[in-house]
Amino acid sequence: MNFHFLSLLIFLLSIKIIGQYNPTYENPLDIPLALSGTFAEIRSSHFHAGIDIKTKGKQGLPVKAVSNGRVSRIRIATSGYGKAIYIDHPDFKTSVYAHLKKFSSKIEKYIKAAQYEKESYIVQKFPRKDALLVEIGEVIGYSGNTGDSFGPHLHFEIRDSKNQHPLNPLLFDFNVKDNLRPQLQRFFLFNEDRNDVIFKTKSANLERVNDSVYKTPILYASGRLGVGIQMFDRQDLSYNKNGIYSMVVNVNGKLTFKYKFDEIDFNDSKYINLIIDYKNFKENQYRIQKLFRPKTAKFSFMDNALERGFFNVEEGKSYQVLIEVSDYSGNTSYVEMYVVGQKEEKKIEPAKGININPELDYIFEFHPNEIYIPKNTFFNPIQLKIQPHSDGIKIGPDIHPFKGAFELSFTTELRDSLKIKKSFIALKEKDNLTYLPTENKNGKLTVKSKKFGDFVIASDLTPPSIKSVNFRKDQWLSGFKFLKLKIDDDFSGIKSYRGAINGKWILFEYEPKQKLLTYDFSDLAFETEKHELEIVVEDNMGNKTLFKTLFFRK
Question: Is pLDDT of 300 > 90?
Fold first, then answer.
């Protein structure tokens, strides 16, 4: 009987008897697990869907399948997860391994065939159920730094295969040594006002009573209050400031609010900027995590049967607030505080701009420019300042979380047809201009943005640069394993590239962080000794550079 058929049969039978299946999971790396990122910690645009495992600052560590299964998806991209493998297991779980440097030989052979068929480095494949079977402990790839990774590490996930919800990998008994309690830095008290739109904030220093208990001075306030904490967690083998696992708030002995990160939904990330004090984050660059649920947020990990986490403080009464902050290993830190109800003067603050109701559409015309804010661009009402100037429009302040994008249109008054064609809208920050993907229809420039700032018209007439790294023209390269070149663009960025040897497309791996193109000579065999290399690189404004050279290789 064919070995692969037998393996597939065993795999399918194991699914049928899933009720009796007791899966075994092993570590994906043969080193102690030191974490540089924990499950569901708050990132700039998403909840972290897995754990980041440190690889001692190196690339190339063998990455192993954590359990028996089949490769269900392979994805290669220059951003996001970079090189990633997804493995389906018989217990209806999917493990994910991201930012890999390369794959094992059988997976590499499979995906390279797809890349050459598509003539593209960026590919995504969903192998047949019997195409790539793997066993627990089998090497499936090697750790790296591809995609949106800012240092060598392995991003590892476990998902529920049925709905693709990320699950906390630590639920599957991966051994992470952790005897350290979460560290709490500052405490904040929020006063809900104007239907959850504006939160007046009071901060308090945390005094450490002992290894596990913090306290605050007595706070005086009134109204519907919620709490927030600036905090982080560490594990024994890592100095990184990682996220928290669970939080509980009790007021006068009554449970007011709680959540823990065992499972999340990718849709939770739509509301991620509502779980922090976003204004404070934009202005001061640190995150205050709210221990209450805003009205406009829907988080899968929060218990909707509970109140939203606010508690009512009446004048002349006192309230004991006890907060528990824990990591997955059960190490817990506590905050004990007292709030005394005291009437506060309500100050009516003058308007600081145009009032924007998120349930309405708005169009602002500054001839020949226009701003369109569709309804549902924001979660809550905001106040907006719009300042037209000679070079463009400044919109702000940029302290509000976006739910959707707004649209900005400029009409260029340039007469040079080439410069009009190469024009776009850029975001100006100090003296730096950042290219924004722009639709250009006969000089009318339009962008969609989820960020406010100073928007101006810019042009890019300079083509990308291409430079050889490890060879020169007419050189013999018989002993070389790789061909390497650097590509760069000074403004709008690289849009595409294409390489060929003797007129035949070749696979260049592109690493944007290093601006490096790499071709593996083992991919293809050429009959002649003289070879013509040709590369075309295009930037986002259509400027192209053609690079041609000759080399020799047996």
Answer: yes
